[in-house]
Amino acid sequence: MKTRYVCRSRVSGPSSRSLRRRLALLVTVALVVLTPAACTDQAPTTADVVPLVENAGFEGSGDVSDDTAIWVDRADPSNSVVIADNKARSGGGIGLFDMRGQLLQFRAEGMMGNVDLRGDFPLSGSPVVLVGANNRATNTLALWTLNTTSRRVSPIAAGRIATTAPNYGLCMYHSKRTGKFYAFVTPGEAGSIQQFELLDNGAGRVRANLVRTLPIDSITESCVADDDLGHLYIGQEDVAVWKYGAEPDAGSTRSSVDTAGDGRLVADIEGMTIAYGDNEAGYLFVSSQGNSTIAVYERRGDNAFVKGFRVVANGDIDAVTGTDGLDVTSRDVGPGFESGVLLVHDGSNASGRTSNIKYVPLDAVVELAPPE
Q: Which of 39, 170, 298, 371 has a Cα-to-Cα distance from 274 of 20 to 30 A?
């Protein structure tokens, strides 16, 4: 595996949140872009990057929100929406936040684990944005549609969709080969990863058919699918990041991208997300919860390791600790995030009673032109 090296770099930001937002563009330009050319003769190190925004979080206390999915408004980037889970046993559900971190909507739907979304899902003859999550309280698959005008979600599942029990995580996949849509559900213990095909039931709702299971011998939460290349990445928390084929006929053959305890990932292996670029360019991000860092790998080929980094404090925005869920886009999502954003879970938000999400400019971490 080819290793690339980066220099440790710490960047300080403004001390005032209002000043930080007014100077978002300047701060973004000033952030150090972490590239391997600066210190190719040194051993790999962990770099520091800073967030520009943190979300308001949810009511309650503790680590109740640890995963996100972002919908990008191509017409009005600043109108983009961050959708977050709330996994509280009492009062859990799903919430929508804007690019300033303010809460737009909350639905008390149950103990939601992970959340993901895909656009252009065909429903009643029209394309919709389909949002999915695993409900840990009921061991079911939860589905909503996002109204992109009102920036609100509404339930759309055709009845109860039972999953493995206990379920723990979820990700979605839109096949470039067939055009079909899928949801993967991961188990909270040794068991099976499930792949469901998502379909219009003919009455304006979404049904799910189980099309494949993949055995796994210990707790597994995070997963992410590469829609263009047809890969599925699974995070077996204390073991490894595994790479499978994402198509339902791909079988159970897998390869290891990286393992816990090799110096880049410290258990638990948690959130994963993919930043897309043109011509198979892009990056796989993996959350290393044991040391609150994030490892970056090439999206193409054998997923060569690129760099590691941590999200540190920026004025009154505290540093990320106990990092879990991640999401990313390389597209413009508004002021300060014109080159994309990386959303990072902070398990212990110093300025609030619950965990929250930090918004990091993507170009503070990698340079990546968005796909056409």
A: 39
Overall average pLDDT of the 47-66 stretch:
93
- Per DSSP bridges, beta strands 220-226 and 231-236 are antiparallel
Which residues on adjacent β-strands are paired with residue 115?
Answer: 133
Q: Residue 89, by phi and psi: left (phi above 0), alpha (psi -120 to 50) or beta?
A: alpha
Res 241 pLDDT > 80: yes
Alpha-carbon distance 173 to 141, whole Å? 15
* Residue that the structure tokens 């503790």 belong to: 62
**Cα gap 184→170, rounded to integer Å:** 5
- Record: fold of 54-290+320-338+351-357: Neuraminidase (2.120.10)
Angle at CA of residue 345, ends 340 and 351, nearest 5°: 110
Rounded Cα distance between 269 and 63, Å, is: 17
pLDDT at residue 45, rounded to an integer: 74
What is the pTM assigned to this prediction?
A: 0.88
d(CA 19, CA 314): 12
- pLDDT-derived band at 39 (thresholds 50, 70, 90) equals very low
Q: Which helix (H) or strand (E) holds 22?
A: helix 17-22
Question: SS3 string of 322-352?
Answer: CCCCEEEECCCCCCCCCCCEEEEEECCCCCC
What are the boundaries of each domain within the chain? 54-290+320-338+351-357
Number of H helices, E strands in the chain: 2, 25
C-alpha to C-alpha distance for 86 and 90, rounded to whole angstroms: 10
**324 neighbors 302 (Cβ within 8 angstroms):** no
Which residue is associated with the tokens 């993901």? 116
Q: What is the DSSP string of 137-149?
A: TTTEEEEEEEETT
Share of the chain above pLDDT 70, in %: 88
Name the CA dihedral angle for 365, 366, 369, 372, rounded to a multiple of 10 degrees.
Answer: -80
pLDDT of residue 350: 87
**Is the bond preceding 268 in cis, omega lying within 30 degrees of 0?**
yes
Mean pLDDT along residues 347-365: 92
Is the pLDDT confidence value at 8 over 60? no
Read off the amino acid at residue 72.
V
Exposure on the CB side of residue 299, measured as CA atoms within 13 A: 24
